[in-house]
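Person: I keep going back and forth on a fold encoding question. Show me how you would write down a chain together with its backbone fold. Please set it down just below, with no commentary around it:
Helper:
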Amino acid sequence: MGAGAFMIADYLGVAYGEVVKAAVIPAALFYLSLVIFADITAARTGLHATRREDLPDWKRSLAARGHLLIPIIALVVFIVQGWSALKTAFWCILLMLVLSWVKQETRMGFKKIVSALESGSRDNLVIAAACAVSGIIVGTDAMTGLSVKLTSYLNSLSGNNPVIALCSR
């Protein structure tokens, strides 16, 4: 969904934050459906919830690593304020590095920083490839006007009836 939102923002020429605002409710419904599906699947297969005493203490976890939530909150705030995705990512990465040094157990050394940057770069290759391909498709469509021609053809076939146009294959 994230990569798709970047492509939508780029294609429509609107700020990424506007796309995110428009996608909040559909995204929440999507994740709610995942939770419900996982719960139904677990019930069917006989899986049971983890016992409360086996769960980590959330207060202790929040005290130990809660400061690492700040960059996530900053990410949302920066995007809502209209910052570009690149600027937001840059400042949130720097903020994460600085905040990792607050406590001994979360401190990142040079090797961990390089490893994290390498892993993030590798993970972003898929997104970059998707964006490149979508850019080629959008560019080709803009040059040829194919989508306008196909839409006009579909409208004429359906007699300008949107219900019939949606049902046609």
